[in-house]
Amino acid sequence: MTSLEYRYDESKVRKCVRHGSSYGKSKSSNFSSTYTTWKNSDHIQKPSIFSKMTSAFTTMLRIRRSATAVWVLALCLFFFISFYLPSSSNAPCDCSHDAAVAALSGNAYHDHNMQPGEDSQVFPSDKHKMALLIPFRDRFEELLEFVPHIHAFLNTQRKNHHIYIINQVDNLRFNRASLLNAGFLESSVDCDYVAMHDVDLLPMNPALIYEFPEDGPFHVAAPHLHPRYHYPTFIGGVLLVKRDHFRMVDGLSNKYWGWGLEDDEFFARLKEANLSIQRPGNLTSGNKETFKHIHDRRVRRRDMIKCYNQQEVTRRRDRETGLSTVQYHVQSIKEITIQNSPVTILNIVLECDKYVTPWCDCTENVGNVPRSHKKGEKSDDVIVPKLNRKTHITQDG
C-alpha cells in the first residue's frame, strides 16, 4: 500500500476516534497490529489498474463496500456485451426442422447455398449417380431420421447420389407408385439409376452396397433381409433400377391408391420383360439387424380400405397405365439441407380419373364389390401372391 492509502486509512481511524465512534475505540489496537504485520510483509504488491478503477468507481458512487462495486461493474459489462456488441460466432444455424416443415407444407423456403439437384460431395471414383426416390406423406419424424442416415451411409460407400422426397400434397389417397413415376420424370437426367426407397427403412449393415444395377434390378431389401416381408416375389423396401429398365417396363401402375400390391404388380412387369432381379448374398446380420424399421403402425395406420371394384382390379396385371400415363403437376420444388444432407422436395399434386379408378377417394364409404371369377382368366395376370402369413410376414409393424 502506498503512503497515500495509509494516510487515508489512518485519518479515517483518527476521524472515528475523534468523534467517539465505538468502532475506533474498540478496533484501534487491532488496526495498529494488523497494519504493522502488513507493513512488514514480504508480499507487498502494487495495486493493479483494475483495483484503482474499482476504487475510483466506488468513490464516485459513494459505495462503501468494494465487492458491491465489482458486482455492479460486472453486471453493466454483461449487459453491454449482450445487447450492444455484435455476435462473433460464425457457426451456421441448424434450421433443418423449420426448413423441412416449410418445404413440405409448400411454403417459400429455399436454401440459397444449394442449386437444384446439387450435392455437397462428389466422388470421381463412382462413374454413376443414383436418384433416391422417396414417396412421402405425413411421415415427418421418419424423414428427419432417414435423410442424414442414408446420406452418411452412401457417402461412406463413396456413392454419388441425390435424395428426392416426392411429397403428395393433394387430398386423394396415397399413391406410392404414381409418386415414383413422377419422381422418375422430375429427377435429374444425370442420375442414370434410381432407388425406389421407403422412408421408414434404414440400412444398417455396411455390406449392403447400393451398386449400379448393370445386370438387372437389384433388390437391396431382399426377402431374407427385410425385417417384415419374406415371401419370394417381394421386391419392396429398397429396389435399384437402371433408367433404361424403368422405361422399358413403363414404370409402375397408377391404379394403386391406398396401401399395398403396387410392388407385386411391378414384379410382374419385370418378369414379363425378362429382367433378372439380383439380390445380396446371405449376410450374417439376417432379417433382424440388416435394416432398422422405424414405422409404428399403431401411430400411423396404413390405408388398407377397399372400395368400389378396387379389390377386383388391383389383384390383376395392369396393362393400361404406367410411367407414360401418370397425371400430375408439380406444385413447388424446394431445395433444403437436413443436417448437412442436401434434399430436393417435390410437392406433387396427383390427378385421378374416377371413371378408371374411383377408389382414389373412398370418403363416401362405398363398399367393395365382391370378386368375380371369370372363366378363362389367365393365371399370369393374377399378381396377388398367396401368402402364409406365419411364414412370410413378421408382425412387427
Report on this model:
This is Beta-1,4-N-acetylgalactosaminyltransferase. Pfam families: Glyco_transf_7C, Glyco_transf_7N. Its cofactor is Mn(2+). Its main location: Golgi. It catalyses: 3-O-(beta-D-xylosyl)-L-seryl-[protein] + UDP-alpha-D-galactose = 3-O-(beta-D-galactosyl-(1->4)-beta-D-xylosyl)-L-seryl-[protein] + UDP + H(+). By secondary structure, this protein is an alpha/beta fold. It has three domains: 1-46, no CATH class; 49-87; 96-392, Spore Coat Polysaccharide Biosynthesis Protein SpsA, Chain A. Helix content is 33%, strand content 14%. It is built from twelve helices and nine strands. Strands 5-6-3-1-2-9-8 form a seven-stranded mixed β-sheet, sandwiched between helices. Strand 8 and strand 9 form a beta hairpin. Helix 1 packs antiparallel against helix 2 (22-39) and helix 3 packs across helix 4 (66-83). The N and C termini lie far apart (79 Å). Mean pLDDT is 79; it is low at 1-9, 12-29, 87-93 and 108-112.
